[in-house]
Every structure is written in structure tokens, then in C-alpha cells.
Amino acid sequence: MKKQTKIALLSTMFAVTAALSGCGQAAKAPEGNASTGGGEAAAGDQKIVIGSVGPLSGSASDYGSTALQGEEYALAQKAEEFKKLGFTVEVSKQDDQADPKQGVASAEMLISDPNVLAVVGHVTTGSSIPAAAKYDEAGLVMVSPSSTGSNLTDAGKKVVHRICARDDQQGTKAAIYAKNQLGVKTAFLIHDKGAYGQGLAEQVKKQFEKDGVQVVAFEGVTAGEKDYSAIVNQVVAKNPDMIYFGGYYAEAGIIVKQAREKGFKGPFMGGDGLDSADMLKIAGDAANNVVFTSTVGDLTGTDEGKKWIADFEKATGKKVGIFTSFGYDAMSVTLNGLMEAIKANGGKKPSREQVLDAIHKTSDFQGQFVKVGFDEKGDNKFAQVFAYKYDNNNKVFIGEVKE
């Protein structure tokens, strides 16, 4: 079914900033960052632990580190409320490196700690899906800030929740935007063979075919390589109007740079996996006019948003990155559910099941940047999709993409 895209054009521009973590490491044992400043609960307080899982090292560390910063900031603001009720709430940070096996290892580590009553994460779809199976067995609720893969919630596991849009929403709207706003009639689709990248590209392909845009190729590449000239040569031979890439910035930056060097002048588009300061570093000037969709809106679009950014940076000494805002709101939703579970349990420490039920019932929670209401699958009924582009080493907000 054809739907017209309406773009609320906004001219807001802001510098792309992100915090990056260090070298690769295996998942660690639970490491508490207590609200009291240490790893032990204050005298008389009961300890509650919330797991935080995402890539803190590796090529996707931009996503995990920025989400974690938002999560910790949200907890710091609510810690005193929990202390008044007799609870010290801590974060157990787990580095899954955006790797499915590490995701499972991190999940098992958190599950083994009886004080862990909820998980904020995982950040990437590929890690979230196998981890969700483990959490489901343990009845441990998860709230992902950014895992967009449709299969994550379609699997029917009650523990799974996310505050962001799904890939079928993002991919569909990206394809509609490309056709209606960029005038695309032919497209070469590339993906990284991952759960997120391939899933997103498949949704774009489906909508293109529905709308009469010719998909001249649908090809996968291996993530982590340093030369994609083979696939770029195929693109040049096909001469499509546009390249769409489903995957992350590390590969996208190389592909668009090599495509421009070989003379491809058409639009290059992708999803929120292209949203990173490193995209600009890798692609250089070739990143200019690269368009991407995102589940995260413009934080600087309101005075309230600007104040929040200033307060965050003053309090943490860190710059706001891609998933800082959604890490903040995902933790806020989780803490709200935890508080509701404590109240429903007569002020006593709730069980994992009680926290799961409280979070699952979230229907109209107004976060700082996103409104949250979970449907039966755990998807956010209020999730949105936005469009951005790179211009002169800045990320330019175009507007919300509506069908």
C-alpha cells in the first residue's frame, strides 16, 4: 500500500559527538557502580542491581558507551528517591562487544546475581536476540534503548521490551523517503549479513518493491574488512540511482568513500547504524550528503532539550552521543517500573517477576525524549523515525519521517 511521506523540515544542525571506549575485553563479572559512590549498599539499605549491557569496546563501542552514560545519569538523578525507601540501586556494566556469544555470556552473568532485577539493554539487535532467550528462562526483564530488529519482539518473549522503533518501521519509512524525497527509481542494496543490517535492508527492499522502485541488487558483505572495492565495482557497473547500506558506520564509511572515488554520485543512505562521529572520520568528505534514518530525534530542537544537554555535560563531564538520550529514557522507564513494583509489594524488595509485570504494564510514560507505552510484544507504541544527513562534518536534522 502506497503512503505519502510528510517531512517536517527543521533546520537544526548540531555537531556529531560521541564517547568511545577502550580496547576489546571479555564480559566481566558484575561490577557495581553504587548510587552511594561505591560497590556496597549503605548501612541498612537493601541492594538492587540493574544490568547495563552494550558494546563498550570494539567497532560499535560508540553505541554502548553513549547509552551507558545516559543510563548512569538517569540513575544518579533517582538514587535518593530509592534510598528514602531503603534501597541502594547499582548498575552492573557488561561489555558484550556487539557479539552474540558475548551477549549470552553477559546475560548469564547477570542472571546469576539474584540482586539483578532488570536489565537495560542490549544495545544491538544481534546481541539482544540470543540474550533475550536467556532472560526469558530466568524471568528477568530487559528494556533495550536501541535494538531495532523486528525479530526481537516478534519471538513472543514477555521479558523483552524496547523504547525505539522497529526495523520494519525504520526500513519502510526510509524507502518511502528515498522514493518521494530523493526521487530514487533504482537502488543497489548492500548489508552486513547481521541481524540488524540485513533485517533493515530486507525491509527497505520490501517497501521498494511495493512502491515500484527497482532493486538492481541485494548483496551481503563481511563486516570488519578494510576493502570493499569488489562490491563497489558491482555498484558502478549497475549504475543505480542510490546505494542503501544496512549495517554500521565502520563498513559504511569505507563503502561510501570507495564508491565516491570510483565516480558514484548518487545518494547513499542507511539506518541509525551510520550515526557516529567515526563515520565522518572514516569517510571524510565522502560523508557529505549521506542520508540516514534514526529512531532518535533532535535533542537540540527545544529549549528543554538544550538545557538537559547542558546539565548532563556539566554533571558528567562528557558529551552527549548517539544513544545517550535513549539510554537515559530506557533507564528511566526501568526505574519507574522498579519503583512501582516496590510500592505494589508494600515497600519490600520485589521479585524479578514483579518488576517484569510492572514494566510490562507501562502504558503512558513520558520520558525526557520519548514517550513510552509497551504493547503486548514489548514494542513502544509511540516510537518514531527521523531523517538526518551529514554536511560539512556536522549532522543535520531533517525531520520526522511520517507515512
From TrEMBL:
Example GO BP: amino acid transport
InterPro entries on file: Leu-bd, Leu_Ile_Val-bd, Peripla_BP_I
Coiled coil region boundaries: none
Gene3D superfamilies from the UniProt entry: 3.40.50.2300
PANTHER family according to UniProt: AMINO ACID BINDING PROTEIN (PTHR47151:SF2), LEU/ILE/VAL-BINDING ABC TRANSPORTER SUBUNIT (PTHR47151)
Family: Belongs to the leucine-binding protein family.
Protein name from the UniProt record: Branched-chain amino acid ABC transporter substrate-binding protein
Organism this protein belongs to: Brevibacillus fluminis
